[in-house]
Amino acid sequence: MSANPPAAVIVLAAGEGTRMKSKTPKVLHEVCGRSLVGHVVSAARELDPEHLCVVVGHAREQVAAHLEEHYAGTRTAVQYEQNGTGHAVRMALEELGGVDGTVVVVCGDTPLLSGRTLGALAATHSADGNAVTVLTAEVPDATGYGRIVRDAGTGAVTAIVEHKDATEEQRAIREINSGVFAFDGRLLADALAQVRTDNSQGEEYLTDVLGILREAGHRVGASVADDHREILGINNRVQLSEARALLNRRLLERAMAEGVTVIDPASVQVDVTVTFERDAVVHPGTQLLGATHVAEDAEVGPNTRLKDTVVGRGARVDNTVADGAEVGEGASVGPYAYLRPGTRLGVKSKIGTYVETKNATIGEGTKVPHLSYVGDATIGEYSNIGAASVFVNYDGEKKHHTTIGSHCKTGSDNMFVAPVTVGDGAYTAAGSVITKDVPAGALAVARGQQRNIEGWVARKRPGSAAAQAASTASEGAVGES
């Protein structure tokens, strides 16, 4: 929370973003599990402003619905025609009914911008008594950005010149406008009324407010960002991928600084909502998404994708896809397992190779080692499910539940046709189709009797390789006798 919270933060998110070449509005494209505008709103909330308003325009219904779903309490103002940044801010101030105090204005496509940097901007603005303070940065290549023009003697900010309106001398300047400002709210409203549209785009530039306030004798200052990468805006898919790589690295470095081992950060992807405990280990080729949590001493990967999944202390998840699952302490999963939503694995349980689970609770010490599907089921403690078992949970209209008790041993190639219950300590024979409840301690055998039809190959497949092999074997058997 900011020591001196601003009166308002205004997020500009009305543009179409045509260079993204997408049906999705630019500000709703995701970076590390959060929309571009979501990153900005989250950073703005760290300042604890009295008002937080997002200006929407293109695809406004879609953007507003996204904000309502994920960032409840955020107000929106509509810019029906995209007539420039100054016009957008005017729409926000009209929505808010005027603002006394500091107003921070930020672009909705700057996902790397941190709350710390925004807080430093607001603090500088307040401490220096500025009418407006611009967040600036020095960048290696300023092409496309508005240049910061300073007084040669005092170093004061005299103007911001858009790239397309800049002279060759001004284009040589490397200090750029980030598009992020802190204003005195009342002075901002007065200055916006004076902004003109006599520029190459015929738009109201918010940057013109600086010149207006300066000419009126007010102080214009700057706050320089420590890392120019924070102010990077997103205009196309290349920049989107670059921002994702930068933020991903930032998140992993933060995790490693807190005691997490990441074997190969270049091959690991994480969302901003992922959490770790110390001494967790992340192997190469791993994606950790959503509300995933990896506990102390747990290992995930390699080649693993976990979404909204909790991995318990000391658990091991290898070559696995999981979504909405809970992996208990000391449990083992994989390789090549698929944990679907509703999977709950008990302490020291095991889900092995080519096993799929869904809406299943599996008790402590229980093992489903390989080649099985467990859906809509409850399995007790220390049971073993044989290879190639299928929990037949769907009758074509409804899902049904299967219950396997504790200390059960089920045979390979079993079908459990739900609804059905196997009692504690019971066994089922290999190849059985279990359609009736099995009492505790019983052995269930549900398969046809084997019948051998002698000479069938010779009669039905004469001249085949199989018939020749059978004939040779028969002759050998006769000779031995």
Condensed summary:
23% of the residues lie in helices and 29% in strands. The protein is α/β, with parallel strands linked by helices and 481 residues long. The strands form six sheets. The chain has a 19-stranded parallel β-sheet that branches.
Task: Write structural notes for this entry.
This protein is of the alpha/beta class. The chain is 23% helix and 29% strand. It has ten helices and 37 strands. The strands form six sheets. The chain has a 19-stranded parallel β-sheet that branches. The protein has a seven-stranded mixed β-sheet with strand order 5-4-1-6-10-7-11. Strand 2 (30-31) and strand 3 (34-35) form a beta hairpin. The radius of gyration is 33 Å and the shape is elongated. The model has no long low-confidence stretch (mean pLDDT 94).
Distance between the termini: 94 Å
The percent range for strand residues is 25-35%
Radius of gyration: 33 Å
So what's the oligomer here? single chain
Assign the structural class, choosing from mainly alpha, mainly beta, alpha/beta, alpha+beta, or little secondary structure.
Answer: alpha/beta
Number of strands: 37
pLDDT averaged residue by residue: 94
Query: Could you name the ranges where pLDDT drops below 50 across 5 or more consecutive residues?
Result: none
